[in-house]
Amino acid sequence: MGTVAEKELDIINVQEETDPKTKKMDALIVIPAETPNSVNKYTKWLEIGIYALIVLVSQSVATILGKLYYNKGGKSTWLISLTETIAFPILLIPMIFNCTNNNNNKIPKLEYHDSKSPSLMTKLFIYVFLGFLVGVGCGLFSIGLLHLPASTFSLISSSQLAFNVLFSLFMKLEKITPLIANSIALVTISSLLLALDSSNKASSSSLSNHHNAIGFICTLIASALFGLLFSLTDLLFRKFLKKNTLREFMDVIICQSFFATCIILIGLFASKNWRNLKTEMNNFELGRLAYVMILIWISVCWQLYTYCLLGLIMKVSAVFANVITTLSAPLIPIMSVIIFNDKMSGVKAISIVLAIWGFSSYAYQQYLDELNLKGDRNGIEDESTDQQTTTI
Fold first, then answer.
1. What average pLDDT does range 355-375 have in this prediction?
2. What is its subcellular localisation (predicted)?
3. How far apart are CA 191 and CA 152, in angstroms?
4. Could you give phi then psi for residue 245, rounded to 5 degrees?
5. Of these four, 143, 169, 353, 371, which has the most CB atoms within 10 Å of its CB?
């Protein structure tokens, strides 16, 4: 018994001898199968590596610059919240070019439903609701960053991964495994250790304790909201939006950013905080130019983060992209120690180790899932090849 390839070769030779007119057609079928694709694989993983690096760097730089803004005299949490979403028109540039050429590219791990798309009102409601989650989450993150050291803030933010998994399990988008359970437990313990460490090391001043508590609670709630956002986006694409193309996904990202920006602007003007921005800029320790540049670069970094996150989702999966974002948790504390002279306590070091362990556990589970999925696809392709050979 020969291999499938040998059988196909024998069949092709017989066809060439019996019917010369089919020679060109058979050559067209065989040649692409024999073309090596190792170069494409290397290119793909190079792109994934670049996207992942930009996600980590942009997220870390944006967080550090946000803390620098507060440390040098900035006080407006509304303004920092606004920088996270207001530069969303930048995404229209790559959207015009990419979506024109790749409109049919589907996002991995999202089921495609060939049925009627939802109405305009349904889409509008979805965009407004997701924008509300983004706006509130950005506001809470800004408050947490104001009251907590950047290192503590980033480690507490890493609980977003655990919340994302929990909400996905609740929505039946993901199945519990020992590795996932281990990841949730480790990330939760990491955040609890930071909470206990912050309460023990707080000064006797009730005001300081109050600020630490506000920062911890706001950051934790914001992490829960963004974990919910990831899970809801996955659910909405599966059940309501009916499509999983790049164009559809970027529509959601841009529209939710637009409504989130509107919500934050309403809060900025309703609170009358905008009246203090000119005075704040004039009194900024690093100068007016530095004040403006910090805000601009925070905005640019968040949009770079968003675009490259979309790249990771398209190249791999949404879950992989979320794992990459949480890897900044151990990176930001190291940068904070160098830039802001944050103290690296023993509890914080243990928290970093637990966070990395939790991320690795979750990432390894996703790696196993990818292998199983690839094996299933190869099995389907082999069955299809056998059927085609039998038919011929």
1. 76
2. Membrane
3. 9
4. -90, 160
5. 143
Torsion, Cα 42 45 46 47, to 10 degrees, reads 130
Torsion sign (Cα): 369, 230, 243, 315: negative
Query: Quick one: which H or E segment has residue 186?
Result: helix 178-201
> pLDDT tens digits, residue range 230-288?
888 878 877 776 666 677 778 888 899 999 999 999 999 998 888 989 999 999 999 99
Q: Are 165 and 174 in contact (CB under 8 A)?
A: yes
Match 């900044």 to its residue by tokens: 328
Residue of 254 and 309 predicted with greater confidence: 254
In a domain, 77, yes or no: yes
Does residue 389 form part of some domain?
A: no
Residues with Cβ within 8 Å of 246's Cβ and at least 6 positions away in sequence, in order, are 98, 99, 102, 103, 105, 107, 310, 314
| Domain contains 192 | yes
Tell me if 204 is assigned to some domain.
yes
Count of the separate structural domains present in the chain: 1
- 3-class DSSP state for residue 233? helix
Identify which of 163, 280, 141, 133 has the alpha carbon closest to the alpha carbon of residue 224: 163
Burial (CB count <10 Å: 0-12, 13-18, 19+), residue 78: buried
What are the structure tokens assigned to 120, written together?
């305009």
Give the range of the structural domain holding residue 276, as residue numbers without chain letter: 45-98+118-377
CB-based burial label for 280 (10 Å; 0-12, 13-18, 19+): middle
3-class secondary-structure state, position 320:
helix
- Residue 327, by phi and psi: left (phi above 0), alpha (psi -120 to 50) or beta? alpha
pTM metric for this prediction: 0.75
**For 172, left (φ over 0), alpha (ψ -120 to 50), or beta?**
left
Instruction: Determine the Cα–Cα distance for residues 174 and 184; give it in Å rounded to an integer.
Output: 13
**CA 328, CA 306: separation in Å to the nearest integer?**
15
